[in-house]
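Query structure, 428 tokens:
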């Protein structure tokens, strides 16, 4: 059944059918050919029970928060401020790409939105200052992936919802690996530009008073992140309530900088509806597919397969990592998560691994899928913002950052405390 399912999934996706529709079609196929009794009667209940969950309300709020910050011009101000602090490093403005992506990851919760934001603001600067298009665009694509690791992350909310795992503890677990990845991206950029200085463009040093004034542009974003995450960890608000507070804070920041307009609100709400509808269609369709797969016995089949290999717990994790790397080449990230979580997570937990730790490891592997062809969404987002040049340039530029993610995955496996220390100390 696994083979038929994989062939069907890749075949339907190759026809450019929307992912949510593909998952529903696969669910109907499993029901028709592999299920011992008709499951279509449970479709309505699955759709209702999946969508009727208060936890998922956080998703449109976090999407709206990011949309407001982007469309009100806060992204441009943040990028300019960080430019003054990091452009003296080998690699120059490339570091501003990563730093800005890190800042917006801490508010938007979406990798694609983060990549699109930074690409729109940064690309004109790359052409003006003579940066290597491969490294510059690759850094933007990689920096955008931090949106699903650094809290508040929409993907972590979905993982917590599907696994019944504490979302605040997942947020804590993702903080250190997310920041470590950002630092790793910058270190790799520095090393590349020290070996090949021509790739890094012009390094610029700004007067210190100007650097201090630039910090004023960052204070609202830092405060907003502190309020959102602080209210969750202090127990003053649920993630959904904190997201609503974040939206109110984003509106106040936009008003302070003069970015409020009817058009801005209209575009933000329309963008939120589009993104949220896509996410919910995928989640609901995947829930129905998982329902049919469980009834057809795929979980037992996969468990028997892994047991037949006679692997140790570490060997099992390495096989799982390999599975995610391979699937990440072909399947969109959110779809990959919601399809595999109900099958893989119970097997991993049965081996004695912490579900919160595995959630962070999975997110790192999912991040890789965002910048590996042929389905890496961030690659297409950045190429779309470039409006010139070849797609292969973005793909080549992302390779060093894929290596950084592989290193992070290895470190998480070798040292689980990287993800688990903060939840154990602050998560209660």
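Result returned for the query:
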């Amino acid at each position: 059944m696994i083979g038929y399912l994989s062939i069907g999934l890749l075949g339907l996706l190759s026809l450019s059918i929307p992912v949510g529709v593909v998952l529903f079609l696969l669910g109907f196929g499993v029901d028709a050919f592999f299920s011992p009794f008709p499951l279509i009667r449970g479709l309505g209940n699955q759709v209702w029970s999946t969508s009727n969950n208060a936890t998922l309300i956080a998703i449109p709020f976090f999407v709206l928060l990011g949309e407001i910050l982007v469309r009100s011009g806060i992204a441009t101000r943040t990028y300019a401020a960080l430019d003054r602090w990091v452009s003296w490093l080998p690699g120059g403005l490339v570091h501003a790409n990563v730093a800005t992506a890190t800042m917006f990851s801490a508010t938007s919760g979406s990798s694609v939105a983060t990549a699109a934001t930074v690409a729109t603001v940064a690309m004109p600067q790359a052409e003006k200052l003579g940066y290597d298009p491969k490294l510059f665009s690759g850094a933007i694509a990689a920096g955008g992936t931090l949106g699903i690791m650094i809290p508040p992350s929409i993907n972590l909310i979905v993982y917590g919802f599907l696994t019944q795992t504490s979302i605040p503890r997942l947020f804590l677990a993702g903080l250190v690996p997310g920041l470590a990845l950002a630092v790793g991206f910058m270190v790799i950029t520095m090393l590349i530009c020290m070996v090949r200085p021509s790739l890094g463009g012009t390094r610029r040093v700004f007067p210190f008073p100007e650097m201090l004034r630039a910090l004023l542009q960052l204070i609202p974003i830092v405060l907003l992140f502190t309020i959102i995450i602080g209210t969750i960890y202090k127990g003053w608000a649920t993630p959904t309530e904190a997201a609503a507070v974040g939206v109110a804070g984003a509106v106040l920041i936009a008003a302070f900088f003069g970015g409020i307009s009817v058009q801005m609100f209209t575009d933000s709400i329309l963008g939120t509806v589009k993104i949220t509808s896509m996410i919910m269609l995928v989640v609901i369709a995947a829930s129905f597919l998982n329902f049919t797969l469980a009834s057809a016995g795929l979980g037992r089949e996969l468990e028997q397969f892994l047991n037949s290999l006679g692997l140790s717990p570490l060997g099992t994790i390495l096989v799982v990592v390999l599975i995610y790397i391979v699937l990440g080449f072909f399947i969109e990230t959110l779809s990959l998560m919601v399809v595999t979580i109900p099958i893989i997570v119970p097997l991993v937990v049965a081996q004695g691994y912490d579900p919160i730790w595995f959630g962070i490891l999975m997110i790192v592997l999912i991040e890789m899928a965002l910048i590996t062809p042929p389905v890496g969404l961030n690659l297409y987002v950045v190429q779309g913002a470039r409006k010139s040049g070849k797609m292969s340039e973005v793909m080549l530029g992302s390779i060093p950052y894929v290596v950084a993610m592989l290193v992070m995955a290895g470190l998480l496996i070798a040292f689980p405390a990287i993800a688990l220390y903060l939840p154990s100390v602050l998560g209660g």
